[in-house]
Specification:
Helix 1 packs across helix 5. The protein is built from five helices and 19 strands. It is about 20% helix and about 35% strand. It is globular. The chain is an alpha+beta fold and about 350 residues long. The strands form four sheets. Strands 12-18-17-16-15-14-13-19 form an eight-stranded antiparallel sheet. The protein has a four-stranded antiparallel sheet with strand order 2-3-4-9, with no helix packed on it. The protein has a four-stranded antiparallel sheet with strand order 5-6-7-8, with no helix packed on it. The chain folds into two domains: about 130 residues, Rieske [2Fe-2S] iron-sulphur domain (Rieske Iron-sulfur Protein, 3-layer Sandwich), CATH 2.102.10; about 210 residues, Naphthalene 1,2-dioxygenase Alpha Subunit, Chain A, domain 1 (Alpha-Beta Complex), CATH 3.90.380.10. The structure holds FE2/S2 (inorganic) cluster (FES) and fe (ii) ion.
Length: about 350
Amino acid sequence: MNNNDNFFLRNTWYYALPSDQIKPGMMISRIFLGEPVLLVRSQDGKVSAMRDICPHRGVPLSCGRFDGQEVECCYHGWRFNPVGSCTAIPSLVEEQQIDLSRFNVQSYEIREAQGNIWIYMPDPDNPQPPASEMEIPVIPGFDERSPQFVEIVKFPCFVDHAVVGLMDPAHSPYVHRAWWWRNEQLHEEVKQFDASPYGFTMRRHRLPENGGRLYWLIGGGVPETEISFRLPGVRIEETTIGKHRVVNLTAVTPISDTETEVTFALYWTLPWVGFFKPLMHILARTFLDQDRTVVEKQQIGLKYNPVLRLIKDSDMQAQWYYQLKREYARSVAEKREFVNPVKGQVLRWRA
Ligand code: FES
Ligand SMILES: [Fe+2]
């Protein structure tokens, strides 16, 4: 594998931020895929996004003000509505009629559901509207409920290393070694995988009593888990324990070539789990920090552009990720249907 894969996947939805981070009347400036983006939530509750650069003289619009309806640039007061249309240029006198639409700012499509805000990042060279087949991910069984718990960690690496690191089944015994986390001998895992929309799914399986201790503690039934991955970097792990359900959404968003944001959100139906929230924050933080720390070390080696060797079966999911990503980019470029390259199969590894 060489580094020809180092591109951002475009014309697709990325996780932007948790809904509760942006209240009505607020604006937030972010970088996604190397582009400055201004997110605003109007007084009526709708989230919109536009390029965070004033088309007049380049000041970030986020340096200005948002009154809940329009953004005003801090430099000469040009105004823009939430979809980036220029609505006023204060310095113009009565006779100076100009077409304000010439100064519109690029806007981005936004979707908000289940407590998450997603942004569609088009390809500037080949912009295509969101395809109806590739809607934002849905957390099964939670209707419009928001996550009870969100943890966000920045990884100092290119997006692919964050994605591959999170789906890598062989690193746990080495990276996540801790007294409270499985510490026993390596054992063999055998899991059936199937192709699923824009990705693949580890078929629903019963959690072993030693591997899913926390879930077995909940009681009320046998814990069963299904894990799915889909482009561009979304992993959904759904565990059912009798009538209860715990779902973890992990979403990976590139910030720049060297920085990636990983959002870890948890949904659950057990009312009393909220009691353990502080403990869960610590566990999730520790877990994600371990992943981040090893990626930091990886950066030291990657500076020298080594050829990376992906092996089977433990790196099969990583290989699928690269295949999916290439196929998606090609299908968009060739304006044809996406053909999922994943062939369902059983994977075996020791972990
Ligand atoms: S730079 Fe924004 S109004 Fe002039
Ligand atoms: Fe990990």
